[in-house]
Amino acid sequence: MAGEVKCHKYSRRRPEDGWTFTVEKMGSRGKRGGGGGWKFVSMPDGSTRPLNEMEKMYVRRETPRPRRRILP
């Protein structure tokens, strides 16, 4: 394990045009997730854009799947 880089020194730096954040707008019921609003990306200059295909895949992965209850 000696000499192995755990976190690359160049990957930690802030991008030149700034970070982008994924924002979830609250829905009409004031909830996040399925009963809430929608997600979009906020750019460093304050503008927004819709999610791209990769980000949509991550949103689909983080939503919990309904599971059947195991009855005793």
Structure described in brief:
Residues 25-54 are annotated as: Disordered. This protein is α+β, with helices and mostly antiparallel strands and 72 residues long. The protein is built from 1 helix and 3 strands, in the order βββα.
Question: How is this fold's topology laid out?
Answer:
Blueprint (H helix, E strand, L loop, with lengths): L20 E4 L14 E4 L5 E2 L3 H10 L10
Antiparallel strand pairs: 1-2, 2-3
What does the model show?
The chain is α+β, with helices and mostly antiparallel strands and about 70 residues long. It has a domain at about 20-60. The chain has one helix at about 55-60; strands spanning about 20-25, 40, 50. A 3-stranded antiparallel beta sheet has the order 1-2-3, with no helix packed on it. Strand 2 and strand 3 (about 50) form a beta hairpin. The model has no long low-confidence stretch (mean pLDDT about 75).
Low-confidence stretches: none
Radius of gyration: 18 Å
The rounded distance between the terminal residues' Cα atoms is 47 Å
> What is the number of beta strands?
3
Estimated structural class: alpha+beta
Name the assembly state: single chain
What characterizes the major β-sheet? 3 strands, antiparallel
Inertia-based shape:
flat
InterPro entries: GCD1_mitochondrial
Region (Disordered): 25-54
